[in-house]
Amino acid sequence: MTSSTPTAPDFLAVLEQAALAFQNSTANRPAAESVVDALLQAEKLAKQRSIDDQFSQLQGQWRLCFATGTRKIRQGGIKLKKGYYVPKLAKAQISFSTDESGAERIGNQARIGLLSLKFSGPARFQPKKHLLAFEFTQIQVCLGDQPIYTQAVRGGAEKEQAFSETSIGKLPFFAFFLIRDHFIAARGRGGGLALWVKD
């Protein structure tokens, strides 16, 4: 009896194809169900292997390509909703960097036309657990590349100061299970899966 779930070598091919199709509109993109299956297979394999990923591998800008939502189920857990490719009209981007002191930072930006909304703040990567915890402490609105509004959020400077002492259990996080040169995949604290491509 055969299974429709991708095998270990196949799931990478599905995710590679999804990333390529997102970057190049002439390429055929895999069905959403296949991408979800491939993400789940990648996550399962990552839990079985010891992988020593580093924050430096995440650095740069990544565009959200594919995501799943979640819904609560009666038994108290969550269930993945159908996955979907993010429309190219709405540009959703995540970025990882280090500041002048070497501290890890995260940015999350949504752009429609010339208007963009960006949240940023401190981040903390735990290589052994593949967890990236973060806290958004600043919001910025830009018209083109020109900032037109900047404001501290969620306690701003105080949250920045307390971030390094805050336990991951109290912070939003991404659990990365696949980090490649041109795409990355993670499960968010809420349980949803996401695939980003290098921007």
Task: Please give the structural blueprint.
Blueprint: H1 8-23, H2 32-48, E1 60-72, E2 78-85, E3 91-98, E4 104-112, E5 115-126, E6 131-134, E7 138-143, E8 146-152, H3 156-163, E9 173-179, E10 183-188, E11 193-198
Helix pairs in contact: 1-2
Globular, elongated, flat, extended or rod-shaped: what is the shape?
Answer: globular
The N- and C-terminal alpha carbons lie at a distance of: 40 Å
Query: How large a portion of the residues is in β-strands, by DSSP E?
Result: 35-45%
Major sheet strand order: 1-3-4-5-6-9-10-11
Primary descriptors:
Lipocalin, globular, 199 residues, alpha+beta, eight-stranded antiparallel β-barrel
Give the structure's gist in a few sentences.
The protein has 199 residues and is of the alpha+beta class. Helices cover 21% and strands 43% of the residues.
